[in-house]
Amino acid sequence: MFSSELKFQTQGELCLGRHLLHVDASHGSESVIGQGALALFTEFAKLRPEVEVRHLRLWEDEELRARMEYSLRHVRAKMARMSQRGSEEDVQCFANIELLAAEIATARGLVISAPMWNYGVPWVLKQYFDAVLHPGLSFQEAEGGCRGLLGGGRPLVLLTSAGGGAQKDHLTPWVLDVGAMLGFDEPKVVAVAHLARDRDAALRSLEAAAAPAARHLAESGRSKEATEEPEPDCGYEELLPWLQSRGLGEEALDTLRAAKVGGEMFLGASAEDWENEELGLSEQEVRQLLRLQEEFRAL
Ligand SMILES: Cc1cc2nc3c(=O)[nH]c(=O)nc-3n(C[C@H](O)[C@H](O)[C@H](O)COP(=O)(O)O)c2cc1C
């Protein structure tokens, strides 16, 4: 589909972040889905207090809106860069876009809050996705379709509301498609309708859905990581999720990621290698790694 793809020029190499991203196009914190999101994140914080939630308020945040600017100037810069004719000006034109694309591409999970507008999404949400969806920056072409730069298996929760019955709905399938393109292909939809008739009932139903949606966000991806067994010659991208599923902490994972430790290097490392001061691993982490090496060998 794409003859070539973009490469990050103003951002470093991507690796899975520690954050969950909330892309919020709701009508504000008092709206029904605004209150639903509050209930969801209250539950989520109980389950995964260590995960940072980044909240992108698409309507209210002027700085963010400036970074999301995407006009014909950007389209031309993109085309020039994709055909290897990009100038320094074209690179700079994409600096904000690269920042936003990296933020979503590396998130552990995605929550999208969007009321239905004219059967679809509010334009501000479409603009956000037009700004961040670029081959090479947030997804790549693969057999059978597009996939996230860091692979799939990550959770998506869609919180959505409609004034009427929402019998015609272009919003949900579109959000699920663009989410999956980015690697958030384990979706859970929390939808309420007939707000014009009964807001209280809609709010009650959203609040009742908050705990299961929070569990989905907290657990989805983890179970997948835990069941996939990497090959001995795997790259660090496959090895790290497995180590994480076995309980290796974030700091040690970061160290291994920076050194791009794949299967072979992991198996070949001695106790002295792990104790090397340059790695900065604690005694406990070294012991854990030695134990995990044994477990990996036994796979
Ligand atoms: C511009 C606009 C377009 C809308 N289009 C639809 C629509 O196509 N179908 C529908 O059921 N409700 C539509 N609504 C109603 C919204 O979905 C409703 O205001 C929203 O769900 C309210 O939710 P909240 O309390 O979470 O803000 C529209 C509202 C606005 C402002």
UniProtKB/TrEMBL annotation:
SUPFAM superfamilies: Flavoproteins. InterPro entries: Flavodoxin_fold, Flavoprotein-like_sf, FMN-dep_NADH:Q_OxRdtase_AzoR1. Residues 19-215 form the Flavodoxin-like fold domain. Transmembrane segments: none annotated. It holds the Pfam family Flavodoxin_2. This is Flavodoxin-like fold domain-containing protein. It comes from Effrenium voratum.
